Amino acid sequence: QVQLVESGGGLVQTGDSLRLSCAASGRTFSNYRMGWLRQAPGKEREFVAANSPSGGTKTYSDSVKGRFTISRDNAKNTVFLQMNSLKPEDTAVYYCAAGPAQFSSSASQPNTYVYWGQGTQVTVSS
Fold it and tell me: Is the CB of residue 56 less than 8 Å from the CB of residue 123?
């Protein structure tokens, strides 16, 4: 079992930045692929970013590529999402999730993640 707790969400304006954090506890953090996914009102949960257990391999959705950066600190059991140049369409609940170590195209599939945090709200005003 892995417990995940997100923090860092809030209300910002277009063009601002936010840094989300996700603290993990339980099983060995460095054994898991970590991802950030989000869900806007009335929409399905969508993939945002993921990184491999070592943090050396990363992937992003097209909608955030170049603006968001995922990183992790395995010594502190924490994964981060640095979000720059925020847009109103980035408004959503952001979830941290842990999945199997294998890092392939499945990393972008929400149903491949096993453990989920409770989510943190990000609201970007225009």
Answer: no
Distance between CA atoms of residues 90 and 14, nearest Å: 10
CA angle 7, 25, 18 (to 5 degrees): 20
CB atoms within 10 A of CB 48: 24
Q: What angle do CA 8, 98, 72 make, to 5 degrees?
A: 55
In DSSP notation, 81-111 reads EEE-S--GGG-EEEEEEEE-S--SGGGG-GG
How many angstroms separate the CA atoms of 29 and 73, rounded? 10
Can you say how many angstroms the Cα of residue 118 is from the centroid of all Cα atoms in its chain?
Answer: 12
Residue 106 phi, psi (nearest 5)? -70, -15
Task: Assign residue 98 a region (left: φ > 0; alpha: ψ between -120 and 50; beta: otherwise).
Answer: beta
Among all chains, which residue has been given the structure tokens 């460095």? 30
Instruction: Divide the 126 residues of the chain into consecutive groups of 10 and give the mean pLDDT of each group.
Output: 96 98 92 97 96 94 98 97 98 96 87 96 97
